[in-house]
Amino acid sequence: MNSFEEELRKTVDGRLLVPGDDITRYTVDWTGRWKSTALAVARPRTVDEVVDIVRVCQRHGVSIVPQGGNTGMVGGSVPSERSIVVSTESMTAVGKVSADSTITVGAGLTLSALREVAQSHGFETGLHIASAESATLGGIASTNAGGARVMRYGSARARIAGLRVVTANGDVIDRRQTLPKDNTGYDLVDLFIGAEGTLGIVTDVTWRLVEPNADTVRILFRFGSVDHAATSLPTLRRLPGVEALEWARGQDILRVARHLDAVPPMDTSGFWVFAEVAETERTKRDSGDAGLLTAAEPVIEQIIAEADLGTDDVIVAESANEQRAVWAFRESMSEAISADGVPVKLDVAVPIEHFASVCNDVDAAARSVDPDSRTALFGHFAEANFHISVLPPEGTAQYSEEVADEIEDAVLALILGAGGTISAEHGVGRAKQRWLHRQRGQAQYELMKQIKTSFDPDQLLNPGVLFPDTSIAHNEETPA
Ligand SMILES: Cc1cc2nc3c(=O)[nH]c(=O)nc-3n(C[C@H](O)[C@H](O)[C@H](O)COP(=O)(O)OP(=O)(O)OC[C@H]3O[C@@H](n4cnc5c(N)ncnc54)[C@H](O)[C@@H]3O)c2cc1C
């Protein structure tokens, strides 16, 4: 055992894994595209242990990759062979719900565990992502995760009231119990949100809980084409109590149907929109208990008329079972795609007026690199957000890095050309690092680099994420 490993082992009281142990789940990402190894995986339980780890790594010039559930889609949680993983999986403390409906939890608590706690106190989390079983609050904060209810509750940033963070020099920034009004200088909490582990290690998250829904109805629309759906988006947004508008191409529903071994509830040609309308006890009382469907019906009629939908093109799911069955065709999309191969994943958004044309052109962009590529598209309609997966031809497990880069370049050029963003929710990570400069321009890129340097001058935290890896550890031998 070298002295680095010995010192590290002491910081976490033996909760250290090294390459001889089974560390694969920490070194390969969810998509399977990013694979590596690490010098070690440290699993601290307390903020003090995180501080000690940072100090040992600082002394030995070893970089740190913070990791939560490892469900990120851009390779940001995957270590290099010259770094260690700091996994927050053992940091799962749960605080009390405070009078302002916030709760402070350990960064390693999963979103579904937080949901259980919230529900036991009569609240909800207000964040819905399909990776909730594994994604952690620290990862969610660090990626500013979005998901299906952003149109109602905002991204993670809107739900985070405070954070505790260990910086690259081992300082603890404690902003857990912030006041509703506090205009004292720079908002450090906001800076750590979405920083993808490049500015500090989040150890605790203070979360704003939301009122639970008393009633929910899900409505599935099948539009003849994406153009019809895009034309109806302003009307879909007017559905009373709407909190989610999701989309998928009919042709991609077939893959999910195969994966779930389920029969699609309607024709799989055209473009599907999954709408969810909901009301809380309070909004229910305010509306005189009129009923969700009664309120939604005139708007549904308007959508049917303006998009020329048939009676078979609209399904209203009222019971919990019907709702689950319908939503499964959207929620199981990522799993179904991964079951078909290792995709090149992109998560982009465009101005709504370009949504239909981009949707129609993505296939061609991917096929300009590989005519046999298979593209799957779905996403969050309200924000014109696309999750794009480009799968290699059947029989090929995975694209080479070179071809994957070419595919990314072709699709992202289309997105930037339409005035869009190369990352709507998943972040930049390692996968999109070389695009950040083009997305944000010279002035913003330089300012972001200066922020990184002032927080982390030695490039200890997540080198290679957001910016090229220029860390000391990048070219040196294994520490002694
Ligand atoms: C099936 C599926 C569906 C998904 N759906 C959505 C979706 O709808 N919306 C969405 O936004 N994302 C989605 N994601 C992506 C992913 O779940 C989110 O990005 C999530 O927030 C990552 O959380 P995590 O704990 O797994 O983080 P990780 O994957 O472990 O890490 C992600 C990034 O955050 C950093 N990080 C993690 N923990 C910390 C910490 N404590 N301190 C500092 N940095 C840290 C890592 O270094 C890395 O850069 C989905 C993923 C899957 C697999």
From TrEMBL:
PROSITE patterns: FAD_PCMH (PS51387)
Domain of life the protein comes from: Bacteria
Signal peptide region: none
Gene3D superfamilies registered for this protein in UniProt: 3.30.465.10, 3.30.70.2190, 3.30.70.2740, Uridine Diphospho-n-acetylenolpyruvylglucosamine Reductase, domain 2, Vanillyl-alcohol Oxidase, Chain A, domain 4
Family under the similarity heading: Belongs to the FAD-binding oxidoreductase/transferase type 4 family.
Cofactor(s), by name: FAD
Keywords assigned: FAD, Flavoprotein, Oxidoreductase
SUPFAM superfamilies: FAD-binding/transporter-associated domain-like, FAD-linked oxidases, C-terminal domain
UniProt-recorded name of the protein: FAD-binding oxidoreductase
The keyword Repeat appears for this protein: no
Any Pfam family: FAD_binding_4
Domain FAD-binding PCMH-type residue range list: 34-212
